[in-house]
Amino acid sequence: MILNHRFDGPPDAPVVVLGPSLGTTLGLWEPQLPALTSTWRVLRYDLPCHGGSRAASGFTRDLTVDDLAGGVLALLDRHGVEAAAYAGVSLGGAVGTALALRAPDRIASLVLCCTSARFGTADSWRERAALVRAEGTEPLIEATRGRWFTPGFPDAERYLDMLRGADPEGYAACCDALAVFDVRDRLGEVRAPTLVIAGADDPATPPSHAEVLAEGIPETELLVVPGAAHLATVERPDVATPAITEHLTTRWRTA
Ligand SMILES: O=C(O)CC1=CCC(=O)O1
């Protein structure tokens, strides 16, 4: 699987990989880019059939989060990156957990934003996948607005346009991947120093999901961001960005 991706920042700096959430693109991380690129070589990627990954090769209907982690490892291999820090939002965070389990020697530090060890029920994801395969992403827009942002967030349309632009089959395949993702009994195996971030008003992955991650992963810190829903890094970059940069700067560990 070849994922659309781009690098920003100094070519010789340590690499941090940034993973997007379901229905968004690598543009999700724009609010953090200026702070991160001062110190890091930032590698952002798009999920299959999202953003610039519309023509991703090797894409199948039975996509799993582990496949996505394999796609990220393929990017690291392609660019000769032995170890990297990783930060991901929601599905992008699940990819980070899968990476930390699959390739512990290559993930030096982890930030899990608004994510979970298990996202709701398999049936709810299968239903959403079926709806999107039948009608596209437009029927999701208003409910998604309410999950992603607290009421009145002024920049919501910019991010909802990413969802409007996602290819329905790619979005549905990511739903299928979320339906079978469950690493609750493997959290104790994660070795990377981990920052867990939750939006205080996130209805999709509420702080109780973050607490499961923070209690299960051995070396964690937990930050609950006030005044933020699911896309807390977008809604409150003033709180999330300094916490992320501090964690990445001070908690890098190689094997
Ligand atoms: O339903 C949503 O949009 C929230 C979400 C769950 C997984 C993900 O990446 O986003």
Automatic annotation (TrEMBL):
Family under the similarity heading: Belongs to the AB hydrolase superfamily.
Annotated AB hydrolase-1 domain residues: 14-237
Superkingdom classification of source: Bacteria
NCBIfam families in the cross-refs: protocat_pcaD
InterPro entries membership: AB_hydrolase_1, AB_hydrolase_fold, PcaD/CatD
Known EC number: 3.1.1.24
Keyword annotations of the record: Hydrolase
Enzyme class at the top of the EC tree: hydrolase
Record keyword Hydrolase present: yes
Pfam families: Abhydrolase_1 (PF00561)
Keyword Protein transport: no
Stated name of the protein: 3-oxoadipate enol-lactonase
GO molecular function list: 3-oxoadipate enol-lactonase activity
